[in-house]
Write a structure and sequence with these properties.
Blueprint: E1 2-3, H1 6-16, H2 39-45, H3 66-81, E2 85-86, E3 92-93, H4 96-105, H5 110-119, H6 132-135, H7 158-176, H8 178-189, H9 199-210, H10 213-225, H11 244-253, H12 266-279, H13 281-288, H14 303-324, H15 330-346, E4 350-351, H16 353-373, H17 394-402, H18 407-423, H19 426-440
Antiparallel strand pairs: 1-4, 2-3
Helix pairs in contact: 3-4, 3-5, 3-10, 4-5, 4-9, 4-18, 7-8, 7-10, 8-16, 9-10, 9-15, 11-14, 11-16, 12-16, 14-15, 14-16, 14-19, 15-16, 15-18, 17-18, 17-19, 18-19
């Protein structure tokens, strides 16, 4: 098994800390041509942006301190009282767990966390969580696979089977424990993790970010209820790319003529674009030419190390996709937060290499299709080649994220800050600066709302 426990991650993080991004655009600040850290980089790295006592992936984590206890109380309150969907056609998602956990990582106080669920405008439409008996769907060990998904890429209707799946995974956790439950079921669910455009896997990721027991069954239940596989084709030979960053650049510049999509047509327009791209063999082949293939450890390399290197590479590519669109695109933003979720899951769960590869493959294909559906924005902004700041200091960025009252802004800024702490990669500082600068200039996330194609997915809309 590949087991990313905290102690092993600490040593791995140290090993990767000053490595240049795999296929990256520039060398990390403070590293020489061989990737060796310079003394100034070590001093910079020794002062993390985020409070490491609030980092569940590091040895310094202090569970149960005042702010963490309040976070767990509020996450429990949300999981107990509210369902996973809201809005017209139940097309929107409950982002409360992501918002509050990211706020906590960014330094939120007990008072701020206690108020977030009741005072954040986007959470005002939360709906009560139905009891499993009300859903009419009972999930058992005999039928759990046959009931998976069935709601398409959009995920409309996932809330109907979710209560049954959540109850099932709660029972399995009680029967065999959380680690064995994950090792048993997560590899099977990995192939469908793109369902509900990354929201289910993001929710599961926040279980590991927060250590909230409730979010484990919520995340697994949501994954099962929204399960869907993106159509794929058999790739001949080995993939041409081993670097996600280089592959994304290649896709952005590929001469293949893709359809031009309306970026303002909401979630239904986005999902319709993904479906159309994946259903047309010529577009499918053009996209998957940039697949990466499975993670295969080199001779003498551990599976842990190989997986971490691939995840860092994909997270970097996701940041490039988002930053290239001006740090305002709603769907490439989910490529970053979805990547962060997979990073969190594979650093917190026991899962075999095959299951890890399934999860990483689905993540990368989702990022590729999303990038094309947003008309392949390129290039990303340049990044500093030295230790200089690309704009405002991190303390201001973190404050902006903690107080934004927008779950998407909060979680992407937390992600950028934490990845900066780990890797000292300037692209994450540049991306975070871009998010705050765009909002300060009055920019709004592009593509929010249901969109004009909702009738394609909900005939009653």
């Amino acid at each position: 098994f590949v087991f990313m426990n905290v102690r092993r991650l600490r040593h791995l993080a140290r090993a990767l800390h000053t490595r240049p991004p795999h296929g990256g655009r520039t060398m990390s600040a403070g590293a020489d041509a061989a990737g060796r850290a310079r003394p100034d980089a070590e001093r910079t790295a020794s002062v993390p942006v985020l409070d490491q006592t609030r980092n569940p992936f590091r040895d310094g984590f202090i569970p149960g301190h005042a702010a963490h206890s309040e976070l767990l109380r509020q996450l429990n309150r949300n999981a107990t009282a509210n369902g996973i969907k809201l809005g017209p056609s139940n097309a929107f998602h409950n982002h409360a767990a992501a918002l509050m956990t990211a706020m906590w990582r960014l330094g939120a106080t007990e008072s701020e966390l206690a108020q977030a669920l009741d005072t954040t405008p986007e959470l005002s439409g939360l709906k009560a969580a139905p009891a499993p008996s009300e859903s009419g769907v009972v999930i058992t060990q005999d039928n759990w696979e046959s009931k998976l998904g069935g709601v398409g890429l959009y995920g409309l209707g996932a809330d109907k089977t979710f209560p049954g799946y959540r109850a099932f995974f709660e029972a399995e956790i009680a029967r065999v424990g959380p680690e064995e439950m994950l090792a048993t079921y997560l590899p099977r669910l990995a192939r469908g993790a793109v369902g509900d455009f990354f929201h289910a896997v993001i929710e599961l990721g926040y279980h590991f970010e927060s250590r909230s027991p409730e979010l484990l069954s919520v995340g697994m239940g949501w994954l099962a209820a929204s399960y869907v596989e993106i159509p794929g084709i058999a790739l001949e030979g080995r993939p041409a790319f081993t670097s996600a960053v280089a592959a994304l650049e290649g896709l952005s510049k590929d001469p293949h003529v893709f359809p031009a999509f309306d970026l303002n047509d909401g979630s239904s327009g986005y999902i319709a674009a993904i479906e159309d791209l994946s259903a047309a063999e010529e577009h499918q082949a053009a996209v998957l030419k940039y697949d990466l293939g499975d993670v295969v450890p080199a001779e003498g390399e551990t599976a842990d190390h190989a997986i971490q290197a691939r995840l860092r590479d994909i997270c970097s590519a996701a940041a490039d996709s988002f930053a290239a669109g001006g740090c305002l695109d709603f769907y490439t933003l989910h490529s970053i937060t979805g990547s962060r979720a997979v990073w969190a899951i594979l650093n917190g769960a026991q899962i075999d290499l095959a299951g890890a590869n399934d999860l990483i493959r689905v993540l990368w294909r989702g990022i590729l299709y999303t990038h094309v559906s947003r008309n392949r924005p390129w290039p990303p902004p340049p990044v500093p080649t030295d230790a200089s700041s690309p704009g405002r200091p991190w303390v201001d960025i973190c404050t902006a994220g903690r107080t934004s009252q927008n779950s998407h802004v909060t979680k992407v800024l937390m992600t950028c800050a934490d990845f900066w702490d780990q890797w000292q990669d300037p692209r994450f500082w540049v991306t975070a600066e871009g998010v705050v600068a765009a909002r300060d200039a009055g920019g709004k996330l592009v593509g929010t709302g249901v969109g004009s194609k909702i009738g394609r997915f909900d005939p009653n809309a």
